[in-house]
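Tokens for chain A. Residues wanted.
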């Protein structure tokens, strides 16, 4: 923001106002205003002027989006989707991370799981069920691979790598 003082040809002659820098340059160039200079740096007047400027810019404008303040914990979030209302489980961690799940994960608290089931009336989205089956299958395959590696390393220790 720039501070200007309106001069004689302007209808606002004698008034001081903070305006956007581009507006200030235009009014000064047109001869309707003069720029108000800051007092010498470090003086009390300069400090007072800087505080005045800071108070003007620290206020949010009407177009600013207010960031939501998320509280750590678990909630159910509703979104409108192509098939109607969709429900997601939201986890907010103390670090500020937010996770959305299609359904309650294993580490979800029981009250949140119960609330989710009440909202969805026990209906499970086929896509969610398919994804759950895929995850379970991957976990089985990973467990089998780990068991095979353990058996091979045990065999190698017993028989000396033959």
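Reply:
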């Amino acid at each position: 923001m720039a501070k200007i003082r309106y001069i004689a040809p302007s209808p606002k002659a004698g008034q001081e106002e903070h305006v956007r820098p581009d507006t200030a340059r235009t009014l000064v160039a047109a001869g309707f205003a003069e720029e108000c200079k800051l007092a010498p740096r470090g003086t009390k007047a300069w400090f007072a002027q800087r505080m005045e400027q800071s108070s003007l810019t620290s206020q949010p404008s009407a177009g600013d989006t207010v960031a939501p303040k998320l509280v750590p914990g678990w909630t159910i979030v509703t979104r409108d989707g192509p098939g109607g209302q969709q429900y997601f489980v939201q986890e907010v961690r103390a670090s500020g991370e937010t996770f959305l799940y299609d359904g309650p994960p294993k580490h979800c608290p029981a009250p949140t799981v119960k609330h989710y089931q009440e909202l969805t009336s026990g209906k499970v989205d086929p896509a969610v069920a398919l994804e759950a089956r895929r995850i379970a299958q991957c976990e089985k395959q990973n467990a089998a691979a780990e068991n095979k590696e353990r058996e091979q390393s045990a065999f190698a220790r017993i028989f000396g790598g033959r």
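The chain has a mean pLDDT of 83. Residues 126-159 form the longest helix (34 residues).
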